[in-house]
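call fold(seq) -> tokens
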Amino acid sequence: MALHRAFSFPLSHAEEISRTPPFTVSAKDLSKLRSCEAFQLIRSLLVDQESQEFCDQHSTDSHEDKKAWLLQRDVTYALIVPILAIYRHAAQLARALLGDRHIFDLELVFRGEARGTFSWLQCFIMEEEDWCLTKGCPGCVVSYALQAEPTIRMILVACRLSSSLRQERNTSHLPMFDFWSDVMKKALDDDSFWGPDLWKTFEARAAVLEKGIEELVRQCIELAPIAATAAQADDSPPTSPKHVFHKLSHPIPQIYWLPGIVSGCWTTLLADAAEAKRIELSPDTPPRPVLSRWPTG
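ret:
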């Protein structure tokens, strides 16, 4: 059972009324974020799309605290974008293979670790949709990252995926958030509820989820040709999960392509942000269609 503040011990009075951002970003990392054009482009998109208003609990007269809340909200958004994109692609692929008849059995398309990972992501994203989309008060979004073990796990996995970009070529233009793992560790160590003793547990669970995501993407790549064939035969009956497995070719070589997937997700996000700013600057320009693009490594 996942650890959760609300179902364990009540928050202290100091935590309840705290209006101070929980994460501490070093001057060095802050400077890197401010000088990263890609991250600033993402932030400009969020200014237009997400709330900049604070609830009563997180409302503050401190301009520095407001800036810190917004920065940490924007980092949270950018971090989890690749994971959301991977889940959505996997779900679309499963729907294409199974049809509406199996809409509640999408995880059956996958096997082993990938099936468990898909189910976990599906439940988490459905239950925490607003947080995943960073909706509402920026302070609430940031604080909620430390609310329960699943949200902590999600952030730590996102940090691990960001770290994998170091192995990719031509990613210097992308924002690097691998330092956020250390930021999370300090916040958890200093937290009166979590404390320093649970960090190894958090890391271990994040490592398991990361491995499951790798396997999920690998199976998506294997299943893509089958889905493409099914799409060309619209009048054919939906495919059963068992039949999908019989159609699988030999597994693709195990290579470390996940960094390419993460890079592609952020590149797509940056392209959308740049397009949004272009349309804003040129109101007469017709918007391009929204495409579901699956990056390849």
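Residues 6-17, 241-256, 279-297 have pLDDT under 50 and may be disordered.
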